[in-house]
Amino acid sequence: MRNSILFVFFIFFLSPATKAIEVNEMAVSCPATLESTKNPLSLKKYLGKVIYLDFWASWCPPCKKSMPFLNALRNKLHDQGFEIIAINVDEDSEDARKLLEQFPVDYVIAMDPHGVCPKKYDVKAMPSAYLIDKQGKVRKIHLGFRSSDEHEIRSFVTQLLNEDKNKEGIN
Amino acid sequence: MNALIYYAFAVLVSLMLSACNVAPWERGNLAKPEMAINPNVQHAAFREHVFESKEASSGGIIGSGGGCGCN
């Protein structure tokens, strides 16, 4: 009896905790399905681009609020190597599709109804955005979205886009 | 010895119960309008104002938001 209690305690405490993706760590791929092609999402494909990895849901008002701004930002900076990958975490992906019909966006949409990706990244709030540099490293984690955040996001994305240009200038 | 086993069991159960959290991305159902503590916020604010005027007191009224957990 004593041994079994100890065993349960060990299982409980030694169970693998989710390792969150922190700033300055490499971004990892996760099993989300691209809405456009139904292929699995691969972040490796976007190496060399600045990525705004957004976790969103149709039931989340700030997520909806961020969509026009993100779409405009993406379209403005896309030619410079910027892309937004928005992973939807609705349990029923149809809810997201209905919303996207009403408010279409040009950036990459991926579906993860089982919540594997947010678990892997240990998402702390909705929406959460991971700004990933051209080398695939997470440089900033932005939680939530308010209109007042727009300037900060735009500045940081521009900074990341200019990083390699500056390096090229030095070399 | 039995008391120790029961104590350990109680601690274990309470620890396990504390692990029943809802992750931010799992709050879709909680964010539905019917899940709001107060489904009509403006109406409630109006009633609260009337109540405060009549009773000459304010506060102690909760439940103005839903369970979305956004921001």
Q: What do you see in this structure?
A:
The complex is a heterodimer of chains A (171) and B (71). Helices cover 39% and strands 18% of the residues of chain A. With 171 residues, chain A is of the alpha/beta class. Chain A has a single domain, classed as Glutaredoxin (3-Layer(aba) Sandwich), CATH 3.40.30.10. A 6-stranded mixed beta sheet of chain A has the order 1-4-3-2-5-6, covered by helices on one side. The radius of gyration of chain A is 18 Å and the shape is globular. The model of chain A is unreliable at 10-16 (pLDDT under 50). Chain B is an all-alpha fold and 71 residues long. Chain B has a domain at 23-71. Chain B contains 2 helices and no strands. Chain B has helices at 2-18, 41-55. The longest helix of chain B is centred in the N-terminal third of the chain and has 17 residues, at 2-18. Chain B is elongated. The N and C termini of chain B lie far apart (48 Å). The mean pLDDT of chain B is 78. The A-B interface holds A 1-2, 5, 8-9, 12, 55, 57, 59-63, 89-91, 95, 115, 118-119, 123-128, 144-146 and B 5, 8-9, 12, 15-16, 23-29, 31-32, 68-71.
Summary of the model, kept short:
The complex is a heterodimer of chains A (171) and B (71). Chain A is an alpha/beta fold. Helices cover 39% and strands 18% of the residues of chain A.
What are the defining features of this structure?
heterodimer; A: 171 residues; alpha/beta; Glutaredoxin; 6-stranded mixed sheet; 6 strands; B: 71 residues; mainly alpha; 2 helices; elongated
